[in-house]
């Protein structure tokens, strides 16, 4: 699973960091999200990232399946 964040949408609410601090961090200057890991492979991390995507108030986070191999 691939984790991406749209910094144009992020309002720095920090829900993602509270939900999964192993994946998300916040910029010290403006509070916008920093994605520390671009992928999640284990079920527990994926579950927490899904929760963060759900909780984010600005829909700035996306969790996507990798595309088919070429
Ligand atoms: S929860 Fe959403 S709006 Fe808040 S810091 Fe994380 S990505 Fe940004």
Give a quick set of tags describing it:
70 residues, alpha+beta, two-stranded antiparallel ribbon, 2 helices, binds iron/sulfur cluster
What would you say this structure looks like, in words?
With 70 residues, the chain is an alpha+beta fold. The chain contains two helices and four strands; from the N terminus they run βαββαβ. It has helices at 15-19, 43-55, and strands at residues 2-5, 24-26, 33-35, 61-64. The strands form two sheets. The protein has a two-stranded antiparallel sheet with strand order 1-4. A two-stranded antiparallel sheet has the order 2-3. Strand 2 (24-26) and strand 3 (33-35) form a beta hairpin. The longest helix has 13 residues, at 43-55. It is globular, with a radius of gyration of 12 Å. The two termini are 17 Å apart. Iron/sulfur cluster binds next to helix 1. The site of iron/sulfur cluster (SF4) has 15 residues, from helix 1.
List the helices and strands and how they pair.
Blueprint: E1 2-5, H1 15-19, E2 24-26, E3 33-35, H2 43-55, E4 61-64
Antiparallel strand pairs: 1-4, 2-3
The structure holds iron/sulfur cluster.
Iron/sulfur cluster (SF4) is lined by residues 5, 10-16, 26, 33, 56-58, 60-61.
Oligomer state equals single chain
Could you state the order of secondary-structure elements as H and E?
EHEEHE
DSSP helix fraction: 25-40%
Radius of gyration over all CA atoms, rounded: 12 Å
Unique bound compounds: iron/sulfur cluster
Question: Kindly state the mean pLDDT as a whole number?
Answer: 95
Overall 3D shape = globular
